[in-house]
TrEMBL record:
It comes from Lachnellula occidentalis. One of its GO terms (cellular component) is mitochondrial inner membrane. This is Tim44-like domain-containing protein. The keyword Mitochondrion applies. It holds the Pfam family MBA1. SUPFAM superfamilies: NTF2-like. Keywords: Mitochondrion, Transit peptide. InterPro entries: Mba1, mtLSU_mL45, NTF2-like_dom_sf. It is found in: Mitochondrion. GO terms for biological process: protein insertion into mitochondrial inner membrane from matrix.
Length: 261
């Protein structure tokens, strides 16, 4: 999410054909690759935003007993970056021209993000499996859409795919939420990351025969990135941007070396 708070690090998103504002993603690098929609479902997972901080699970952090200083440093940096993101949302909200202090066009509404991400996550994979390019177009940003479209077009004759969400493993969690402003009045982009843990099953068929090795239930942990543009202080619909990964201490140290934080 130019002057953006960053220059993006995942897939570039093209432009709206019907709008002068670019539908920008948070990267200048190659688009995410959906592969054959297997765990981890969208590959490779990229850093969603140049300084988007995603606190690792406890088991993935430096040991609090063997490396207490690194452990606490990671927590402290994460706290500061999350405070920055929250402050950025507040500033963006009250930067609008509305005369009443609390009656602003830009609504934060964090409570709606997780349900929206879950719905988009399910719709995205279902549409891809069904080969519904139009539905994928409505769900995914340009880079991810092009990847899925190419995968659908590349299926063999008579090949079909079935995707099933077997169950969720725990509650989905919002792990990042930030906004970046464009150098246009009332314009910007909002990007959020939701951790979704689930059991999924992908079955591929050629004619009436199941492809060997498919149809197995696999546990998947995904950091699903959703984003939407803000135009004239009004937020558009959320779309799936891809997936990302946890932030390590080495990421934070690199940001410091490059003077990003």
């Amino acid at each position: 999410m130019a002057h953006l708070l960053r220059r993006p690090l995942c897939s570039a998103v093209g432009a709206f054909s019907s709008s002068p504002l670019p539908r920008r993603c948070f990267s200048q690098y190659a688009p995410l690759c959906a592969g054959s929609i297997q765990p981890q479902m969208i590959k490779p997972r990229q850093k969603a935003e140049r300084t988007t901080f995603i606190l690792p699970r406890f088991s993935n952090r430096p040991s609090i007993f063997r490396e207490p200083r690194q452990h606490l440093r990671l927590l402290w940096r994460g706290f500061r970056l999350k405070a920055r993101d929250w402050f950025g949302l507040i500033v963006f909200k009250f930067a609008g021209p509305e005369p009443r202090w609390f009656n602003r066009s830009f609504k934060i509404q964090r409570g709606k993000i997780v349900p929206t991400a879950l719905a988009l996550h399910k719709q995205m994979y279902s549409s891809f499996a069904e080969g519904d390019v139009a539905a994928v177009r409505k769900t995914c940003t340009d880079g991810l859409y092009e990847t899925f479209r190419a995968r659908i077009a590349g299926r063999g004759k008579g090949e079909t795919v079935q995707w099933e969400l077997v169950r969720y493993n725990g509650r989905a969690k919002l792990v990042s939420d930030r906004v970046s402003r464009y150098p246009i009045e009332g314009a910007g982009a909002r990007q959020s990351v939701v951790r979704i843990c689930s059991d999924q099953k992908l079955t591929r068929w050629r004619g009436d025969k199941m492809v060997e090795g498919s149809g197995k239930v696999k546990s998947v942990e995904e950091y699903v990135v959703i984003q939407k543009r803000v135009v004239g202080w009004k937020q558009e619909e959320w779309m799936v941007w891809g997936t990302t990964y946890e932030t390590g201490l080495e990421d934070v140290e690199e940001w410091k070396r490059k003077d990003w934080i």
